[in-house]
Design a protein that fits this description.
Largest sheet: 8 strands, parallel, barrel
Number of helices: 10
CATH superfamily: Aldolase class I
Number of strands: 8
Strand content: 15-25%
Distance between the termini: 39 Å
Radius of gyration: 16 Å
CATH topology: TIM Barrel
Length: 219
Amino acid sequence: MPTAQQRRRRLERARLYLVADAQVGDAALRAALSGGVDMVQLRDRSLGDDELVREARRFRRACDERGALLWINDRPDLALAAGADGVHVGQDDMSVQHAREACGGQLLVGRSTHSAEQLDDAIAAGADQLSVGPVWETPTKPGRPAAGLAYVRQAARRRPPVPWFAIGGIDAGNAGEVVAAGARRIVVVRAIAAAPDPRAAAAELTRALEGRPVGAAAQ
């Protein structure tokens, strides 16, 4: 199990963050990690507690092979039970302070933000990692209006003291716009989870984060 210091070092280095449900199989998960994914969040509200812990342990094994961080959505208790590295809480979930208290300070705590005010609140609350978005509307969060690239630019100007990741509708085709707006880290869901080749999809997103050509231009 990584120490708190090792977790923070890995978080600081992380650039490509995959959010996935339990339908992502071992082969796809390992392929994504080998392609460049640095962190994985298991987010699956359809599972019961025991099922989620079981799937999280499967994710844990795959992440350990690559030295990647594992996050669990919303549930500090289950994150602890599964041996995860962190718990991620949204604006409609518990507070950062409550999440930290619930895990006894043993886990990293991430926070979703959708505005500059929420970003400042999360920084003040001591979140270890921040999500900034959604940049574009996405079916994974129906009804959530897009915050747009303007919010990414605001976050870049704010220079949060902890790692922050742009999120929402990002794929290899538009990741360059997000990078140009000032993001150096991104969260993706469908761009990898729904890709026919998760390893290639992750590698292409990594190239985009590095400012290198993607797609046909990369050939």
